[in-house]
Amino acid sequence: MITTRMAVPADAPELVRLRRLMFLGMDGRDEPGPWERDAERMARRALHGGDGGAGRLGAFVVDGDEAGPPHLAACAVGSVEERLPAPKHPAGRFGFVFNVCTDERYRGRGYARATTEALLEWFAGHGVTRVDLHASGDAERLYRSMGFAEHSTALSLDLSGRGRATGV
């Protein structure tokens, strides 16, 4: 049986390590940098509830059991976004899964599914009526087996060249 648990602020460094591994697996490039410090600080604050949005970040993990310092084997992390209510979404709460990663030492054990299922239950408990994510080619089969399907064509615009965001 796989034991998942909700992440705590002390897990922030490991969540960021797994996030970095996720990016490496997606595009084959390892890109350390200041983003890691900022991500750790933000995760620690959100998991503590000190960001003014307690309950908006959900993170579920499986602890690693191999030798070495304590570490996480896998995680699934997402957030709740509130939008204006709509007929099919009367609470206006949507979930977005933005980080699912299993350390390669632990792959093939069902940890990604277990942490994602825990995150989905957490979303449901917060009144979320739709959950979105972007799947890598390797993970698409997993998400489809969980009931995810195409919803719409997403369009994105990178605003990073328009000046520094102020972190509203």
Automatic annotation (TrEMBL):
Supply the InterPro entries for this chain. Acyl_CoA_acyltransferase (IPR016181), GNAT_dom (IPR000182)
Q: Per the database record, which ranges form the N-acetyltransferase domain?
A: 2-168
Q: Where are the transmembrane segments?
A: none
Pfam families from the UniProt entry: Acetyltransf_1
Designated name of the protein? GNAT family N-acetyltransferase
Species source reads Streptomyces marispadix
Taxonomic classification: Bacteria, Bacillati, Actinomycetota, Actinomycetes, Kitasatosporales
